[in-house]
Specification:
299 residues, 63% helix
Amino acid sequence: MNSTLPPSSSAAPIAASAAPVPRPGSSLYHALRSAPPALRPALQLWLQWWHEVSRIPLEVSDAGVAESKLQWWAQEVRDSLAGQPHHPLMQARAALSALPEPSAWPEMTLWAQQLEGLIQLVHQTRWLDDATLQRHNRMSTGAALEGAACILGASSASARSAACLLGMGLRQSHQVARLGLDARLGWVNVSIDVLQTHDVKAHQLSKPDANQAPAGWPGLLQHLIEQARASIEQGLSAIQALPDAEVRALLPLRVVAHIHLTQLQEIAGKGDRILHERVLLTPLRKWWISQRVRWGWLP
């Protein structure tokens, strides 16, 4: 496959990005600030790459064109890992200093899993069963956090597994927080079997009644929140069982996890508001949570 940049792909230098990645005050911003300074450039580039590819399904309405862009990125990653980067982002990766051991760049499998998950998202706006949705969550944010763990120097099988589980929980939390917004954009990130269990129809999420929530909404919301919370807490518990050096290395992931747990608490008290608007924590609250994790007040 030719790795020449497709005409509609961004070829601007990284510094010229319209918005900084991660956004100041965001959970990822606080996670990055909690990483060792020597690893921040690599971790930020990994985050920026994920931002670059994950916005393709949102910005490209034609599924075929979106898949072509993601397939191009798959070839670009292969070329880059073979020493032939073309995109400015991958050229910047090649220009970084070698990572200090035990840190390492994620292998091709982790880059490819995320792209495969996004291609699936391009073509699949409904999920038949929860197992398929959770597989997507593992391939997307699960793989993203597993890759972050490698960069942070926690690359044992147990550490990678814990990071992946935590990533699945963060993806679930993200889906809860964006439930109404994503449904209006065409993605119903609740499987059909779960909707049927709680007697909620997809159109009640994508076109919610401003005056009355679906009768099964409280049970559905509780299920989604508890599912996300359980995955995040299991991931945190798995991290705490690791050797001390890996627990310390995964501090940035623990920061993000606790911010998401707090956001889930907020969402739980907002009823059906998330069908109409996003519920977000203030930057100050995110900062305070990140500080408590860094001080050891939160595990």
